[in-house]
Amino acid sequence: MTSIEKLKVRDALMQSIRAFFHSEGFIEVETPIRMKTPCMELHIDAEPSGDRWLRTSPELYHKKLLAQGAQKIFEIGKCFRRGERGDRHHPEYTMLEWYRSGGDYNAMLDDTARLLRAVGISGDLKIFTVAEVYGKFAGWNPVEHFDADRFDFDMVEKIEPNLPKDAPVILMDYPAECCALARLKPDNPKVAERWELYLGGIEIANAYSELTDPVEQRTRFDKWGAQRKALGKTVYPVDEKFIQCLEKIPPSGGCALGIDRLLMALTVARTLDGVLLFRD
Q1: Is residue 249 a contact partner of residue 70, using CB atoms and an 8 Å limit?
Q2: pLDDT band for position 180 (cuts 50, 70, 90)
Q3: What percent of the chain has pLDDT over 90?
Q4: Exposed/middle/buried for 194, CB within 10 Å: 0-12, 13-18, 19+?
Q5: How is residue 80 annotated by DSSP?
Q6: Neighbour-count burial of 268, counting CB atoms closer than 10 A to its CB (0-12 exposed, 13-18 middle, 19+ buried)
Q7: pLDDT over 80 at 280, yes or no
Q8: Euclidean distance between CA atoms 256 and 56, whole angstroms
Q9: Is 58 within 8 Å of 73 (Cβ atoms)?
């Protein structure tokens, strides 16, 4: 596509997304890009910005809004991840993130199915559990016998290449060890209420039922922080205001979706170069 064609396709997608969420009664919000305390996740590194960090997601701010009584909110904005560059990665990217107070990861799944239809992605969702696909394509069950290195390797080498390409695919019910901010299943604490969306074999979105237990959240942040330290990574401070707000949040669901990768799916682009105007 030419630069002008890229502009037009992106503009049409943005209009469709905003029209969808406004028709569903969501409020569009705008939250800070520079923050004191990035979210503590093992493999996601924040980009420094003076005495702050560039956000990797607006998630912490959105949950603070839920704690203040927001019901349905969404945001489209720039996010950043240090050191991520490749055919499907860029250090600066556009994220759509939305939250439903009173919902869970199943509610987010319903939202996503409707959103995909609204922006022109056809086909019914094909839904598989993580345990199911790992058993079929990798020969083991990471829910029962989790191994972080093996899980990540097999996801790239054995799982993603074998996912159906002819329809949207949902991988759901991740091992608890993979989820820093997701609620665990009440009847099976080895499983987190999380799913990821794939289009054409490319991961597009990540959603879960939100963890609202401040004690459990601090424990997970401490765990991730210790693992980051062991790997020689920066250990971020804990956002105490975020921890304190959790007990004020009702059961809720949230989803983060990469706009640039969604554009790849819509235009059948092979890499991000096909949809981004600038790749410095």
Answers
A1: no
A2: confident
A3: 87
A4: buried
A5: E
A6: exposed
A7: no
A8: 11
A9: no
Query: Domains along the chain?
Result: 3-274 (3.30.930.10)
| pLDDT per position as a tens digit, 40-82 | 888 899 999 999 999 999 999 999 999 999 999 999 999 999 9
The amino acid occupying position 254 is: G
Report the distance separating Cα 244 and Cα 80, nearest Å: 26
* Residue partners of 267: CB distance under 8 A and separation at least 6: 1, 9, 274, 275
- pLDDT tens, residue by residue, 152-163: 999 999 999 999
Q: Which two tokens stand for residue 122?
A: 């056809």
- Tell me if 266 sits within 8 A of 121, measured CB to CB: yes
Amino acid at 104: D
Could you please report the per-residue DSSP string of 214-233?
HHHHHHHHHHHHHHHHHTT-
Mapping DSSP to helix (H, G, I), strand (E, B) and coil, where does residue 94 land?
Answer: strand
* Token pair for 218: 């601090």
Question: Which amino acid, 272?
Answer: L
